Amino acid sequence: MFEDPVRYHPVLEDAVLSPSDIHEILSLLQTELPAQSTSGSETTRLGFSLEERKRRRKISNRESARRSRFRKKKHLNNLTDQVNQLKVENRELKNRLCVATHHCQAAQSETDRLILESIVLQQQLAGLCQILQHSMQLH
């Protein structure tokens, strides 16, 4: 009716155990329970079992906390790297903006100079046209 628990266990069917897991399981199986009195044998066994579970849970919690600290540290390092990269990119963009602003100001100065030159040339042309008209009227 019942299968041999050593040969087959449905919960562990697909489980992958690390060497440390196997060592811990074997050490638990090899651990002998302390001598028990006949009146409190169940209590002592349950007490040992509870203590063992507490010890294992404590170890598991410590390992989980260690992994969590590692993940947080890795995340912080990634964020720090990203901040540094963004600072470099920001500096480069500011430099490009400064160069573009300088080019824009130079172009505006050149435009202003050309407009002034155009006005002077138009005035000179107008003056020449008046001289030409005046000289044609005399002849």
From TrEMBL:
Residues 51-97 form the BZIP domain. Keywords: DNA-binding, Nucleus, Transcription, Transcription regulation. Its main location: nucleus. InterPro entries: bZIP, bZIP_plant_GBF1, bZIP_sf. Residues 34-74 are annotated as: Disordered. Residues 34-46 have a biased composition (Polar residues). Pfam families: bZIP_1. CDD domains: bZIP_plant_GBF1. SUPFAM superfamilies: Leucine zipper domain. It is found in: Nucleus. This is BZIP domain-containing protein. The lineage of its organism: Eukaryota, Viridiplantae, Streptophyta, Embryophyta, Tracheophyta.
